[in-house]
Specification:
Shape: elongated
Distance between the termini: 9 Å
Structural class: mainly alpha
Number of strands: 0
Number of domains: 1
Length: 109
């Protein structure tokens, strides 16, 4: 039987995972735009959307070597803000997962 706190921990875990995905998507989109990639949204989706072992991440990281980063101060501050938000999202994801696992163990699931 699911208890109310297990539902809350599952919600916190999903919230952390979804906001982490969004922040990584937006960081890659900004990085690709600053480097002069033709379709930064495509690269952001390709980087963060794959479930085939991270080949999109590998292709993006190899491809970005050719393009130097030209970020303005405003874009740098946006990137720093997104990194902080991603860190908070990661904390929510980790805490929710840990507490959900502990509550499952204690309830005998």
């Amino acid at each position: 039987m699911l208890t109310w706190y297990m539902i809350i921990f599952a919600f916190v875990t999903l919230l952390g995972a979804s906001t982490l995905y969004y922040q990584v998507f937006r960081m890659i989109q900004l990085d690709a735009a600053c480097r002069g990639f033709k379709h930064p949204t495509f690269w952001a989706v390709f980087f963060s959307g794959g479930n085939n072992g991270g080949s999109g991440m590998l292709l993006y990281l190899l491809g970005r070597k050719k393009y130097p980063s030209v970020m303005t101060e405003e874009q740098r501050s946006i990137m720093v803000s997104r990194k902080k938000r991603a860190g908070v999202s990661l904390c929510f994801l980790a805490a929710g997962t840990i507490f959900l696992a502990v509550s499952c163990i204690l309830n005998g699931f």
